[in-house]
């Protein structure tokens, strides 16, 4: 560091936070201009005058490694006032967060947009735009950009996004994230450098094409839910390791997946335990599962609707699973008895070595009670049928609330897993410390001396009991 303040008494800090008033003072005062002009980090909080930001950036002298700009209910013109200067100055990370407290999304007919200039020197850019209208610069090379994230964006000339992030114009890009976009009808990417792509909630997407020989992680969620036009997706990623595809049940038939010999983790759409016969959602899940014979790590989500009395039990339609080593079984119970459905899944993958059993909260009240006489209790043979999990060595359960259904299932799990070595239980936030200790004792009574039990609460940060002698 070594630089001195204007009085010569102390070294410069590594960053400066500029409010609008401070930005104005910095530009007007020669005494302070030398200070902030040499700093590698600049942060503008709740900036109301974008022209001042541009003036500060133009006057900045040092390599700008980090620039953070925060605005509130900004318009497209305000972003256009300083982004070109940022493109010239930033050599590291650019973050722009427009807090859209005024409702955010603009009308589709509102054509006010700004252009994202070519970031020739930046290595990372994250733009949370509050649905400002955005067009990507039609020319120029993002030479050093490795990470691009766009959130709450309304795209104009959307086809140019795919062109901009492809190798000819973005030769170093490794990670692309697009969340909550509007207007992106076609996304076509050809990249030799991309390793991770995350696409969530892209309204209007009709065509997705990715050719990325180095891609390892692809996460697609709710991108085709919103439209009823022809949906087409083509993925060529021979090095893909992780594929999570949670989307419209109509889509799998139009999704073309190339060879994925290295795939280790698969996360298909959720599966309804009770629903209408020939559920399109379930057919989508099974369609993806059938594409792979062997998967090291499978994320499988079983979902119970809050009211199931008028629906059919659909687990029998699931007749096979890939050969897997690690099962992450997520059960959205909505307060229902889940033992039969979880048993059905475990019976088809009895060779697993690791099991994660997760019970995410759906509705707090529904978690507490299940209506008397509910049909979820009709499937009870699982408590007496034989199941041998003779390869299962490690089990993790989270978040554990200690309901009767959960305790009964864990008791059975101890009987099925004959070579179990370790069980880790993380209690839900609703479980008090005294309740947690009581549940620890209950579960220990089901356990065997050779099994190491670990119990956590407070989101997994506080250990309650660990060793068998506790």
Model description:
By secondary structure, this protein is α/β, with parallel strands linked by helices. It has helices at residues 20-28, 30-36, 50-59, 76-89, 159-165, 280-290, 339-348, 364-368, 404-416, 433-446, and strands at 15-18, 41-44, 64-72, 90-99, 113-116, 124-136, 147-155, 175-182, 186-190, 196-203, 207-211, 217-221, 232-236, 242-246, 255-257, 265-267, 271-272, 274-275, 294-303, 312-313, 323-332, 354-358, 394-400, 422-427, 452-457, 462-465. It has a 20-stranded mixed sheet that branches. α1 crosses α2 (30-36) and α1 crosses α3 (50-59). The longest helix has 14 residues, at 76-89. The chain is elongated, with a radius of gyration of 27 Å. Residues 386-454 form the FBD domain. Pfam families: FBD (PF08387), LRR_At5g56370 (PF24758). This is FBD domain-containing protein. It comes from Urochloa decumbens.
SSE order and pairing:
Blueprint: E1 15-18, H1 20-28, H2 30-36, E2 41-44, H3 50-59, E3 64-72, H4 76-89, E4 90-99, E5 113-116, E6 124-136, E7 147-155, H5 159-165, E8 175-182, E9 186-190, E10 196-203, E11 207-211, E12 217-221, E13 232-236, E14 242-246, E15 255-257, E16 265-267, E17 271-272, E18 274-275, H6 280-290, E19 294-303, E20 312-313, E21 323-332, H7 339-348, E22 354-358, H8 364-368, E23 394-400, H9 404-416, E24 422-427, H10 433-446, E25 452-457, E26 462-465
Parallel strand pairs: 1-2, 2-3, 3-4, 4-6, 5-6, 6-7, 7-8, 8-10, 9-11, 10-12, 11-13, 12-14, 13-15, 14-16, 16-19, 17-19, 19-21, 21-22, 22-23, 23-24, 24-25
Antiparallel strand pairs: 18-20, 25-26
Short description:
The protein is 21% helix and 33% strand.
